[in-house]
Structure formats: C-alpha cells, structure tokens
Design brief:
single chain, 609 residues, alpha/beta, Glutamine Phosphoribosylpyrophosphate, subunit 1, domain 1, Rossmann fold, 3 domains, eight-stranded antiparallel β-sheet, 34% helix, globular, binds 2-deoxy-2-amino glucitol-6-phosphate
C-alpha cells in the first residue's frame, strides 16, 4: 500500500524522505515521487518502478529544501505510471495521499467544468485541485484544506504543501495510518513508525478525523471538522528491526528459516508448565470474564483468515465454545450479529489491514469485547482493541506471510489453552500435555526445513503446470487453502485449496495428467478418509504429491512423491505442514524466476478497502 513520508525542519528534506521511503518499501509499491519546497519554489521528481529509479533521477536532478513530502504508490485509481505517481499538483497545492477517494469522479467532473485540468487518472489529484480552489485571498491554507476535506468521501492519510504558503505542511488522516515524529523543532511525518524512528522516538499517533498543521517549528492539532485538540506524544521504546538478508538470497527465505526462533518468541515467558496453563499478558481478561462469552468470532483477511480457520478447530475441539470465522471485508458490511457476549478476535500481522480494522470497529460499536492477535506493536488494530496478544514474529518484509502465519497459529494454540483452563474444558494434565508438545516444535520446524531439496525436486517436476489443487481435511483444510494462496501469490500459478471430502462434488472433474494434486495427510483422525480421497484422484490419472507424517510409508502408495513431515500431534501439525508448503511455493517461484519478496500487484499492508 502507499507509503508517505514528510519532513519540515532545518536539514535537507530529501535524504530524510528517501530513507523513510526505503523503510516503507515493505508495504509494496509500483512508483514513487518526492517534492521539496525552498523559498516558495516547488520541485517534483517522480519515477515508475523501484525506488532506485527515483534515486537515480535525484542524482541527475537533485532536490533541495527544508520542507518536503514523498510517496510510494500502490495503484488503485489509474495504472502504475509516472503520470499517476504522487505527488500531484493542482494549481499551487501539492498532495501525497494513501487511501481511496470514493466520490472523486463526481468532484473531478465539477472541477473540470470549473476549468481545472487534470494530468493523471488518480483520485488524489482531485484533492490538490479542490484545496487549491478553496485557497483564496480570504481563506488560509489550513482552512482551505479543512473545507476541501469536508467534501471528500473515502479513506485517506495525506500531506499537503502550497507554493502560496511556503512555511506550512498540513497532515490529515481519516482511515489510513499516519504518525508524526517530533525532535525539537523538526517534524517527521510517516505512514508507519519504522520510517522515522531513527530520527526520533517521540511520536504522536494521529487518529481518524484529525489534522496537524506544522508551521515555523510548531505543530497544532485539530479536528478536521474544527476545534483544537490536545495530543500527547509517546516515547517509543521498541526498536524497529533492520531488514537484513543475513546471507539469504531474499527476505522470504530468511523469514521461512526464522520460524524456529519466531515460534520460541511467541511462547517465551507465557507458559506455566506445572499449572498446565499459559499467561497472555495483553489479554486483560480474568477467568470469570473469559469464560463468560457465549461465542467467539475470529475475523481476518488472507493468510490471517486461514489462521483463524485453524483457530476454530482448536477452540471448538478443546474448549467446546462455538467459534465463527469471518472474512473481514464481508463481516463489516453485513450488520453482523455480535453483542457484549461475543469475544471478537481480529487477527492481523500488520495491524493496519483496512477491512480488519473496520470489522473491529463494527464489532466494538455493537459492544463486543475485542482481543486482537497482531504482530506489529502499537498498530491501529492493537491500539483499538481491549486486549492484544502479540505474535512476536519480528519484522516480516516478504509480502507473503510465513513466520507471521505460524506464530499466529501458536498464539491461537496458547489462547486455546488459556480459555480451556478458564472454562474447565482443559484439565491440568491436558494443559501440561499441550504445553509439553510446544517445547519440541522449533526443532521439528528445523527438521521440516531440512526437506527443502526434496521439495525443490517436486517443484522442478511440476514446473510447467498452470494449475494445482491442494487437499486437506479437518485442521489441515485451512493449511491446504494457505498452501494454495502461497503458490498463487508468489509463483502466479493458479491453485485452489479444497476440503478433501468435497472433491467428488465438483473439483474432481479437473483431474488429469497436467494437474498436480498436493494432498495433506497427517497422521490424525482423518488419515483413512484422506487416503481414500487420494485413491480417487490416482484412479482418475491424477498426479499426486502427498505430504504425510514421518514414518507413514504406506500413505505415499500411489503418489508420485511422498514427503515425510515430522509429527507434532494433531493440534500443532498445521505449523509443520504450513512450513513445507511455504518451501514448495518458494521453490516454484524461484525456479520460475519470480521476485518472491515483492510479488506483482500485492502489498504487505493493505490499508485500503
Ligand atoms: C498473505 O501472504 C498475504 N500477505 C495476505 O493475504 C495477508 O495475510 C492479508 O493481507 C492480511 O494481512 P494482515 O495479516 O496484515 O491483516
């Protein structure tokens, strides 16, 4: 998603903005731009593609000035191109924007009728023209922005400059994230803290409906609708981890290999072996409150939604509490049936996914209690929840979630133990057993990572396939979905995940010699059934690769390849099977020469609908 960096102070703005944009690269983008202002003269540089192109342009045509704004664009309205890259200038006003302006066509028509000329296909350009139109001799820049924003419907975080007021940088937020860092009389604006935390740890987190006017070494906060606001800055005490490859060819492979440590981190300090229980420090619910909920509702998008599906299996199985799993973008518009008797659990790596955040707000407005599962500290979803369970996976740069998925699975496993102990469905012995199973998990992940060369051989064999099917049953069904998503997003091979028992109701028609079928067959209660489903595929000439449990030699009969995954027990087997499927997708993508860290069209943090 788009990234914004702004600066106003006494140093040259360009290096500050470019270093910030580099640190926001993980969000995904297709073009970038920067604008600085010196003595009222504005200069803009924009380029398509990677930031290195913008850096090259800046070497040829440098920019100077103590005020500036920069942007990495993830296209929503208008194709990726230099013309559509931000900043956009309308009259004297220059804007960078993250979000979507829903009524931009209407506004554009009206502005065009009044003589404005547009140079891009973006919704953002409309904002700059609208502000410019309002910025008259009788109206200040600040007031012009305020008036323009009243006419805008949609989601935004934006920075605006004007040639007619060269001492002012205006920031506004409604729906997309924005923070302001303060160091003396210098101000750093960014979509995300890691972009500016190397300059200052004093941060003000902007909330929706707020505006900041930075002028002459001071900042004034107000509601967009009017009325000054007292905002308190906070000192950030965590350190953003550096995105280093540490000898790996890319971030994704490094992050796949970080899983043993990430899984240690999510568990560290939380288990009480003797009590057969766990302590979840941010849960903020005592036993009485925790067991009082009539149902749980897990809400998420993409990979996090797959984790939620695994969570349903775990919680219903061990705690006997009904669990609904919701896709956030559906939930938010459905007038969902939640109440104060519902524990709603948004799951999000970034903590900024717009749909998940909106679902959280919808549930909160209906009095539900919210405990989120998040990876990013102080993210919007974490801040707006009553409680939060952090996954402690560390920084994930690769767009495809890997370690953040498996740590979500373990966070849900820990929550299952806590809830089961609170409501009495998990007794002391079972609790101790479940905790003991966790201790061996990192080593089993290491062992699974050791299957890489066998998995690479599988990827080589089926490299020319254009489609693939993933089958799983029970707790492995969501992992089949996740395996298929991983393959799609980084190798661009079409793949579908199905519950294995559903094959005969339609997808079996797709089986032929060109279609690899990846079957998840752990040694759990579904094994015999899955074996039958596998035979149905083999009998129709399908090419089967089976992921079975270590030592289950018979399971592989009839398959072209059988990969033996270490056995961690039914409840934790999804972690190990997920790791194997990450390696499978990774190998396909690398053999096809794809950029696994930045797959086309995708963004790490999806802050628009
Ligand atoms: C998965 O590899 C993707 N990165 C994507 O599906 C992601 O899980 C989804 O966008 C949700 O993101 P979140 O966990 O940050 O909310």
């Amino acid at each position: 998603m788009c990234g914004i960096v702004g600066y106003m102070g006494n140093q040259d703005a360009t290096p500050v903005i470019m270093s910030g944009l580099n640190l926001l690269e993980y969000r995904g983008y297709d073009s970038a731009g920067i604008c600085t202002m010196a003595s009222g003269a504005v200069e803009i540089r924009r380029s398509s593609g990677k930031l290195v192109n913008l850096e090259r342009l800046l070497k040829q045509q440098p920019l100077h000035g103590n005020i500036g704004i920069g942007h990495t664009r993830w296209a929503t309205h208008g194709k990726p191109s230099i013309a559509n890259a931000h900043p956009h200038k309308g009259g004297s006003v220059i804007v960078v924007h993250n979000g979507i302006i829903e009524n931009y066509l209407l506004l554009k028509d009206e502005l065009t009728r009044r003589g404005h000329q547009f140079l891009s296909e973006t919704d953002t350009e409309v904002i700059s023209h609208l502000i410019d139109e309002k910025f008259t001799a009788d109206t200040s820049f600040e007031e012009a922005v305020r008036q323009a924003l009243k006419e805008i419907h949609g989601v935004y975080a934006l920075c605006a400059l004007s040639e007619k007021d060269d001492k002012t940088l205006i920031v506004a937020k409604s729906g997309s994230p924005m923070v302001i860092g303060i160091r003396g009389n210098e101000y750093f604006v960014a979509s995300d803290m890691p972009a500016i935390i190397c300059y200052t740890r004093e941060i003000v987190i902007m909330e929706d409906g707020e505006m900041a006017v930075i002028r002459n070494g001071t900042v004034k906060f107000s509601a967009i609708g009017g009325g000054e606001l007292e905002k308190i800055s906070r000192i950030i005490d965590w350190s953003p981890l550096k995105a280093e490859n540490k000898g790996f060819p890319n971030h994704m492979l490094k992050e796949i290999h970080e899983q043993p440590q990430a899984l240690r981190n999510v568990v560290a300090g939380r288990v009480r072996e003797e009590e057969g229980d766990v302590v979840l420090e941010g849960l903020n619910l005592d036993d009485t409150s925790l067991k009082s909920f009539e149902r749980l509702c897990l809400v998420a998008c993409g990979t996090s939604w797959h984790a939620a599906l695994v969570g349903k299996y775990l919680i219903e199985e061990y705690c006997r509490v009904p669990v609904d799993v919701e896709i956030a973008s559906e939930f938010r518009y459905r007038d969902p049936l939640v109440s104060r008797k519902t524990l709603v659990i948004p799951i999000s790596q970034s903590g900024e996914t717009a749909d998940t955040l909106a679902a959280l707000r919808e549930a909160r407005d209906k009095d539900a209690h919210i405990v989120s599962i998040c990876n990013v500290a102080d993210s919007s979803i974490a801040r707006e929840s009553h409680g939060v369970i952090y996954t402690h996976a560390g920084l994930e740069i690769g767009v495809a979630s890997t370690k953040t998925f498996t740590t979500q699975l373990v966070a849900l496993y820990l929550l299952t133990i806590r809830l089961g102990r609170a409501n009495g469905r998990i007794d002391l012995r079972k609790g101790q057993e479940m905790i003991a199973a966790l201790s061996g998990l990192p080593a089993l992940v290491e062992k699974t990572l050791g299957l890489d060369s066998q998995i690479e051989e599988v990827a080589c064999e089926y490299l020319t396939s254009w489609d693939a099917i993933y089958l799983g049953r029970g707790i492995s069904y969501p992992i089949a979905l996740e395996g298929a998503l991983k393959l799609k997003e980084i190798s661009y091979i079409h793949a579908d995940g199905y519950p294995a028992g559903e094959m005969k109701h339609g997808p079996i028609a797709l089986i032929d010699v060109d279609m690899p079928v990846f079957i998840l067959a752990p040694r759990d209660r579904h094994l015999v059934k899955v074996q039958s489903n596998m035979e149905e595929v083999v009998a129709r000439g399908g090419r089967v690769v089976v992921f079975c449990s270590e030592g289950d030699f018979k399971t592989g009969k009839g398959a072209e390849y059988a990969l033996q995954i270490p056995w961690a027990g039914e409840a934790l087997s999804p972690v190990l099977f997920a790791v194997a499927l990450q390696l499978l997708a990774y190998n396909f993508a690398i053999l096809k020469g794809k950029d696994v860290d930045k797959p086309r069209n995708l963004a790490k943090s999806v802050t628009v609908e």
